Amino acid sequence: MENGSSNKALKPMDSEQLREYGHRMVDFIADYYKTIETFPVLSQVQPGYLHNLLPDSAPEQPETLEQVLDDVKEKILPGVTHWQSPSFFAYYPANSSVAGFLGEMLSAALNIVGFSWVSSPAATELEMIVLDWFAKLLNLPEQFLSRGNGGGVIQGTASEAILVVMIAARDKVLRSLGKKALEKLVVYSSDQTHSSLLKACQIAGIHLENCRMLKTDSSTNYALRPESLQEAVSGDLEAGLIPFFLCGTVGTTSSTAVDPLAELGMIAKSNEMWFHVDAAYAGSACICPEYRQYIDGVETADSFNMNAHKWFLTNFDCSLLWVKDRCALTEALSTNPEFLKNKASQANLVVDYKDWQIPLGRRFRSLKLWMVLRLYGAETLKSYIRNHIKLAKDLEQLVSQDPNFEVVTPRIFSLVCFRIVPVDNDEKTCNNLNRSLLDAVNSSGKLFISHTTLSGKFVLRLAIGAPLTEEKHVMDAWKVIQEEASFLLASQVK
Ligand SMILES: Cc1ncc(COP(=O)(O)O)c(C=O)c1O
Predict the structure, then answer these.
(1) How far apart are CA 325 and CA 143, in angstroms?
(2) How would DSSP label each residue in 374-426?
(3) 101-373 is classed in which CATH architecture?
(4) What is the atom index within ligand 1 of the atom nearest the CA of 279?
(5) Which residues, 6 or more positions from 332, have their beta carbon under 8 angstroms from its beta carbon?
(6) Ligand 1 binding pocket includes 155 (Cβ within 6 Å)
């Protein structure tokens, strides 16, 4: 195969070839990480660039690993945005780590499809154990642990997590009120909630006119006010509608706003609503005792989700979902075809995770989280998080000291939201200026930041959380931002 010869019998899993190629691939990847700072962080290619570089059809004859890796270097890497770069500050991070990477390798090696316990018992059991470990790190209430009626499960993404719990909540209500009630079901959240909530509503058949994205503003730093929720719920009840689902967020995508879980949860409980807490990004910070307060009130929630693949050194994808009542999930999502029947499932002795998720097939994802927890340990993981938060705090201070800039919302975790300040209250010009600054900074290739809007203001977001980021990268990034801003401000004056 190495020489491109086609007359040898195909041996798709030859352990000696795996050893040889595997070593070469690991060397290739290690070199990539070693030189990652030499690449433009945000890929600068134009749409369709790859069509011109690759052939129109797949090769008839085998090619060599060298040929493929050369193409990766020359053709693929220029079109890659380097999420693992220490100067990647856009969106929220997507952490890779040696432990996470090795776990992924092991999972790829075993390549099991663990839909039911019997299809690979260790996959189900390790997932239950690791999710219990994690629940304890977060100090989640007992009801979320697997020894009672609840438990945790690894979903691909936070979007899938919110969809499955919404379907569980929907079916629970429809079982008692009848299917016709669907058109009356109402969902609540703040206008800062991730767009995955609306997508879940669309998929779950919730009428979009019954989705209340309640307005927030700077007076609560974009957290949902319980009074707004109460008012909306009362209005809907009066109109004969059925409040059934509330999503609170700890660490919103735009600005890390934290909704007041305890108060929201009380309203949810007194109206028999399902209360889901989305802590996709900020959940990681809550393993540190000093940040645990941000999920106080999670006792009132029916489900809680955080992405270990964001800021917890666990390679994508690994979204952790806990529910208090696993029957709500399984009653909505179970299937029981003849070809999957087995003694353990029939005797109700085991968890079959296929009934907690949308697809049937599932990867052995708990391995990577297990490896992260074991190879790093909770104390190291806490320091990792604290270091990013400290870097963000330092940056926030620098921004607030620069008269050209303002911090738009107070930083809570490791995201700094800021902008060039408006002159003479001219918000429109200010928004354009900040948009230009974003483009200038990102097209420099030296760093990558993203943006949002808050109360009509165009805001720059710098999220610190890539595994390789050190103080010098944050300082260099800030220097580039300041320089580009000075240039733009000077050209405005002319
Ligand atoms: C708060 C929050 N919720 C949900 C999501 C969606 O995440 P996923 O890509 O895992 O669906 C994000 C993504 O950044 C997020 O920040």
Answers:
(1) 8
(2) HHHHHHHHHHHHHHHHHHHHHHHHHHHH-TTEEEEE---SSEEEEEEPPSTT-
(3) 3-Layer(aba) Sandwich (3.40)
(4) 1
(5) 164, 167, 168, 170, 171, 172
(6) no
DSSP symbol at 181: G
Q: Answer yes or no: is the C-beta of 319 below 6 A from any ligand 1 atom.
A: yes
Other CB atoms within 10 A of residue 235 CB: 12
On the question of a cis peptide bond just before residue 317, with omega within 30 degrees of 0, the verdict is yes
DSSP string, 355-378: GGSSSS----THHHHHHHHHHHHH
Q: Most distant CA pair in the chain: distance in Å? A: 79
- CA of 358 from ligand 1 middle (Å) equals 18
Nearest atom in ligand 1 to 319's CA? 10
| Residue type present at position 249 | T
State whether the beta carbon of 305 lies less than 6 angstroms from ligand 1. Answer: no
Cβ of 157 below 6 Å from ligand 1? yes
Q: What is the mean pLDDT of each run of 10 residues along the chain (494 residues)?
A: 59 94 98 98 97 96 97 98 98 98 98 97 98 98 97 98 98 97 98 98 97 98 98 98 98 98 98 98 98 98 98 98 98 96 95 97 98 98 98 98 97 98 90 97 97 98 98 98 96 74
How far apart, in whole angstroms, are the C-alpha atoms of residue 219 and residue 213? 17
Amino acid at 456: G
Rounded Cα distance, 109 and 121, in Å: 17
- How far is residue 335's CA from residue 60's CA, in Å, rounded to a whole number? 41
pLDDT of residue 494: 59
Asked if residue 146 has its Cβ within 6 Å of ligand 1, the reply is: no
Terminal CA-CA length for the chain: 64
The H-assigned helical ranges of 261-365 are 261-270, 289-292, 308-311, 326-333, 343-346
Domain ranges of the chain: 101-373
Cα of 56 from ligand 1 centre, angstroms:
35
Determine the distance separating the centroid of ligand 1 and the alpha carbon of 161, expressed in angstroms: 10
388's tokens: 């990013």
Helices (H), 118-225: 121-137, 158-177, 196-204
How many residues make up the chain in this entry? 494
